[in-house]
Each structure stands twice: as C-alpha cells, then as structure tokens.
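Figure caption, in words: inputs first, then the predicted bound structure.
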Amino acid sequence: MARRTWQAGISAMVTALGVVAITLTNAPEAAAASPLRDLAAAKGVYFGTAATVGELNDSAYKALGAREADMMTPGNEMKWDTTEPNRGQFNFGPGDAVVAAATAANQRVRGHTLVWHSQTPNWVQNLPATELRQAMVDHITTEVNHYEGKLYAWDVVNEAFSEDGTRRQSFWQQKLGDGYIAEAFRAARAADPAVKLYYNDYNTDGVGAKSDAVYNMVKSFLQQGVPIDGVGLQAHLIVGQVPGSMRQNIQRFVDLGVEVAITELDIRMPTPATAAKLATQASDYKAAADACLAVAGCVGITTWGLSDKYSWIPSVFPGEGAALPFDDALQAKPAYDALNRAYGGTGSTPTSTTTPTTPTTPTGGAKSCTASYAIVSQWQGGFQGEVKVTAGGSAVTAWTVTWTFPNGQSVSSVWNASVVTSGSGVTAKNLNYNGRLDPGAGTAFGFLGSWNSANGIPSVACTAS
Ligand code: 9MR
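Bound structure (9MR present):
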C-alpha cells in the first residue's frame, strides 16, 4: 500500500510540474533496478505470475515472485480436483495458502479456474445432466463465496472451444449443451457481485477461428446481459511464432467492452537453449508484451511461472522448454531483459553467466542425471508430487530415480514413470518414451501420494545409462 501511495504522489507531482516529470522519467539509474511490478504499476497495469504451494516452499523462488510480480495465480490449487474432490466436500486449504502468500507479498490474486474439462474429478464427469448442472452451480457458488472479496478476477470457464471455433466436445458441452457457459457466469456473479469474471483460453492470442468464436460469444453475452468482464488470452507460445495479429485481437475485445489480460504467458523452444534461440525468445516476449501494453484495456500480463525450474512445458512437450524469463538457477534470461524494457524499464543485464551449450554428438562420455522433487499441491492426507529429471553432459537412454520418504508417505498413482516401492523406499524408472534425453535435456514424472503427520521433501538420487 505504501508503494501505491508513493506512486500516486509522484503522478500528482507530474501533473502539476511537467518539468519535474521529465527529470524523473529520464533517470535511467532509477529504472534500471526496477522490478516488473513497479514498472507495471507506474503504467497502471500489473505483472503477474503463477505458482503452486509446492513451488512457494522454495524460498528463493518465492522471493523472486514477491520482487517481480504484483498479481498471483495459483497454478493448481483452485481447480475442482483440489477444491471439491468429493461432492459437497470442499478443501480450500491449498488455495488459501497461495492467497495468504500473495497477500503477504502485497499481490492481488486471479482465481483459476471454476469450470474446466481437465483436473475435474470423475464424480463430476459421471453425473447425469440435471445433476451435473446443479453440481456446477453449487461448486461455483461455494468456491466464489469462499473467496469473495479476496480475488481480483475469476477464470470462470476455461478452454471451452476447439481450434476450429466450434465448442470443445467436453463432458460439459455434451451433457449441458451451449448454455452452460452463460449459466456458469451467472452463478459466479450471483456469488460475488464485484470480482471480475473472465473467459480464458489458449490459441486465442491472435485473430483466427478460435478467437473469432470467443469474440462472438462475448459479444452475444454482452447483448443478452450475461455478466462477463474480461477475456484471458493464455499465450502459451512458441519461439518465433508470436501471432502478428495479437494487438489487433486484444483491441477488438476491448472495443467490445471487456478488459483483456494475458494470463499464462510462456514461450517454449526446443531444448537445450542456445544463445540464438534465447535472443529470438527475448524479441518474442517483447512482441507479446507490447501487444498488451499498447492497448488501454489490456490490464496486465501473467507468466505461467517465472523460472524454467518450475515450468509445465518439459513434462507435456518432451524436448521443449526454457520457456520462462528466468533460467533454472533463477537467473534473468534475455527474455527478462526484453520484458523489463517493454514495461518501460531499462532492462537488466542477465546475471547468468551460463552460456547455453550447443548439443554435441554424445559419444562415450560418462552418463549422469540429476533429479529434483517438488510437491505440486497438498491437501489433508494427500498430495501431488513431481520429479524433474535432467541429463548431464552426455545423452542418456534410461534413468532411475530413487528416494526414501522421511515421514512414512506413500505413492498411490504415477504417470510418466514406472514405480516400485519397498517400505518408504521408492524406485522410479523411465517409460519407453521418456528415457532418451539429450545432454542437459529434461523430463518429468508425477504422482499422487498420501501423508499423515508431515510431508517432508526426500533427497532424491538419479542414475543414468
Ligand atoms: O501448470 C499446471 C500444471 O501444474 C498441471 O499439471 C496442468 C494440468 O492440466 O495444468 C497446468 O496449468 C494449465 C492451466 O491450468 C490452464 N492452461 C494450461 C496450463 C498448462 O497446462
């Protein structure tokens, strides 16, 4: 709050004393050190990021987020599988933990997400239509009520369209028909009259069939009085492929009368990163940021994480990654520098001295790997874990990760690895599609586990062949 008051004071001075304003805005030393959140606030927009409760246990990462971002999106903690795992049994513990951390860092929060085809429990998906409609309204009402007054916005409905602009044939669509999206927005508005209500999707960043469909839906909602305040463009982009029509697309939504936010920005590349790819990525970040910042009504940009250490990309797109503005060691990449400049700063020379290596043909070097273990989300008695595996300086064809749980935890289901347990000991091996890793490349596997008294992080060991 002190920060806002100070900025308000400066802008008042700027209005009254133009000469002083010129002196202030021309001082490069002041801007050079500015975190994105301060630059954003000076422009009347925000810079946000996403994090899970597990990631916020990493104190250096948490501090980086607090320094750079003034908006926070919980990565998983407000999704249905966490918040209502069984009908009528609500669990807001993990989401509350993210909100508490954000509040402590003087950040606002975007709620994500109420109605989605993914990360929604089977009990919801298996309901007959009439019960499903009631379950949707009950879920929205209870969750939005719980967070009333605490959030900036809700992603009410997420990813409801297909690439060709038709409705995604999800269980929502198939059982409830076209009307479910408007019903979801109405239920959200009834539960919180003030929070901004967003429709959020990917591959809607530029003008195209899918964004046309969202545009037409928003237009008809506004005509019919269905409450909607904003459109979220996720912007999960690929290096060298930022849509040229992004600014135009943002502008047309704003012209309709809703606000726009870039909600999940990351720009992935084939790994390992090279200096050339990082340079292209930097100009891509600038292009995406410029598209938003050029349009009054594009209220802010959120990146889906800050550091490559915690990106979702390598586990979903094997062989791709390095998508975020900070590297695995939390050092600023050229992308950060470009983002900082786009927000009006003078950039920061990347502090990383890591020179990206060009892959060499792996012949005969000692094969090695490293692994890192993280709790993605945690609730009473259960948790979701993720282990990232990174090859050393030589290519590997297979890897094994082992650990011993310190507090008697156990693993119940696993994806992207095969696991054998013996007491508290866990041995995880690659499957046939994710054993081969180029030098320095990574992959990840995940699991659901249970815990009782404590859920300590085990030390993990990785061996490769
Ligand atoms: O970052 C989230 C990751 O931890 C989850 O495993 C994944 C499961 O679908 O969801 C990720 O976040 C997604 C977001 O909620 C919606 N848009 C796409 C994001 C990346 O998958």
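Residues 1-32, 350-363 have pLDDT under 50 and may be disordered.
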